[in-house]
Amino acid sequence: MIIKDVISLIEDFAPTKYAEDFDNVGLLVGDSNLEVTGALITLDTLEATVDEAISKNCNLIISFHPIIFSGLKKLTGRNYVERTVLKAIKHDIAIYAIHTALDNQHKGVNDMIAEKLGLVNRKILIPRTDSIKKLTTFVPVDNAENVRSALFKAGAGSIGNYDHCSFNITGKGSFKGNEDSNPVKGERGKVHFEDETQIGITYPAHLESKILNSLFEAHPYEEVAYEVISLENKNQHLGMGMIGELPEQIEEKEFLKQLKSTFRTGCVRHSKLLKKPLKKVAVLGGSGAFAIDNAKAAGADIYISADFKYHDFYKAEEKLVLADIGHYESEQFTKNLLYSFLSKKISSFALILADTNTNPIHYL
Q1: Average pLDDT over residues 124-138
Q2: CA 237 to CA 118: how far, in whole Å?
Q3: Keyword set for this entry (predicted)?
Q4: pLDDT one-digit tens code per residue, 135-176
Q5: In a shared domain, residues 247 and 119
Q6: 284 and which of 128, 305, 356, 364 could share a cystine (Cβ 3.0–4.6 Å)?
């Protein structure tokens, strides 16, 4: 396989279109047309990570965090970012970062945290509102089934646990072709009325090019009549964070002890305990202070994330417990998630979990 083949698999799982606007995801370093000798899967890409890739004959690093976050104006090796990029380039090692594209994926970072905690009845904490589009097109009745099938095959018409979803109305369309037209139905220069099916179908925004190409290929008309609108519907299978329930209620201190053990963290910083059992748990990997109000609104008994500042803990307002388990600790199982997904798709070269510990924080 070449690098772009691997990237295609990753982006089928976590499309980069759904990464946050501030992020820098995708292929950051390297040539996507190189044949892959091996892929090292890591949370962060540092010089030590590149050294590990070299020692293990991997010319592709699949990283959760991007080593290049803001623009590089120079490459002189003056800091750890530049040194890492220079070393990767020198040894023909490509670096791909997935970051918030995987954060927003339903079976991504936060689902992995929820899995480690044994949460049931899981759902997205902050569903996205910019990821669903609707296509409306008009097709001769006799051709409607063929067009619908092509759209379904391209990925349109999936809503949660259902697929092949569409709404169809039969009506009468009219048109008149000019002297340059070549109408499939009717005659040039004459008004024609045709029994048509109006097909309405939703699709994920990242598939738009594929959906429209399928429409144009399957539609019989010379000029395809269609409309595309962006919906404000919340996408219940895409977004930040996750909320679920513990199988049984548990006392606060006991749960915090389990949390510390499960995520192998040096400490758990938390807000005031409320002396009531915990049942509903919200989680968000990485820096999650921005979602405290969402966790409260969702009725969480405890919200687990990282990088809370001093004043963030006041926002608990004795409505829930805030627990900071550390940035690295909250995302540490992400590389296992990527390894598990890719190992089911790839067998032609080595997939290796990085041994390098990239956590910059240490506990005494």
Answers
A1: 96
A2: 19
A3: Metal-binding
A4: 999 999 999 999 999 999 999 999 888 999 999 999 999 999
A5: yes
A6: 305
Rounded CA separation 238/222 (Å)? 37
205 shares a domain with 244: no
DSSP H or E segment with residue 240: strand 235-250
Mean pLDDT of the chain, nearest integer:
96
Q: What does the alpha-carbon distance between residue 331 and residue 286 come to, in Å, rounded to a whole number?
A: 6
- Judgement on whether residues 324 and 339 belong to the same structural domain of the protein: no
* Nearest CA-CA partner of 103 in 269, 357, 258, 291: 291
CATH number at residue 37: 3.40.1390.30
CB of 297 within 8 A of CB of 122? no
Q: Over the stretch 180-198, which tens digit does the pLDDT of each residue have?
A: 999 999 999 999 999 999 9
d(CA 85, CA 83): 6
Secondary structure (DSSP) of 305-353: EE---GGGGGGGTTTSEEEE--HHHHHTTHHHHHHHHHHTT--SSEEEE
pLDDT tens digit sequence for 32-47: 999 999 999 999 999 9
| C-alpha to C-alpha distance for 45 and 67, rounded to whole angstroms | 6
pTM attached to this predicted model: 0.91
Q: Which residue has the tokens 């690295």?
A: 328
What does the pLDDT read at residue 71?
84
- Nearest Cα neighbor of 325 from 269, 244, 258 is 269
Q: How many domains, in total, are found in the chain?
A: 3
Name which of 361, 362, 357 is nearest 42 in CA terms.
357
